[in-house]
Amino acid sequence: MDLKPKRPLEIDVHVDGSIVTVSLTGYLTFDSDCGSLRRTIDTLLDQGHRDFVLDLRDIRLIDSAGLAVIIRMHSIVKSRGGLLLKADGHGRFLNIFKISESD
User: Fold this and answer.
1) What number is the average pLDDT over the span 23-50?
2) For the whole model, what pTM was predicted?
3) Cβ atoms within 10 Å, residue 90
4) Which of 26, 45, 61, 91 is the most exposed place for a label (fewest CB within 10 A)?
């Protein structure tokens, strides 16, 4: 059984002062190892970062596993007094965030 992610997910982190931009490219799905995003965010939070921009412009698909990671990220950042903004130049995913109350 091959446990390697079947769909690519690239994560690029850019820190500019107190703002961390996390840019995603590809698929934020169960079979793309969306857990790598969770681990990246956990590391950044452990380093003391609190304010994030999640850039979804180059994401092709988000499934329930990917949405769960984003909702978790939103909750943790908010509980630590931080801010999570989601950038989606196409507006494809914004309704999902409104429905899940993580907008």
Assistant:
1) 90
2) 0.82
3) 10
4) 91
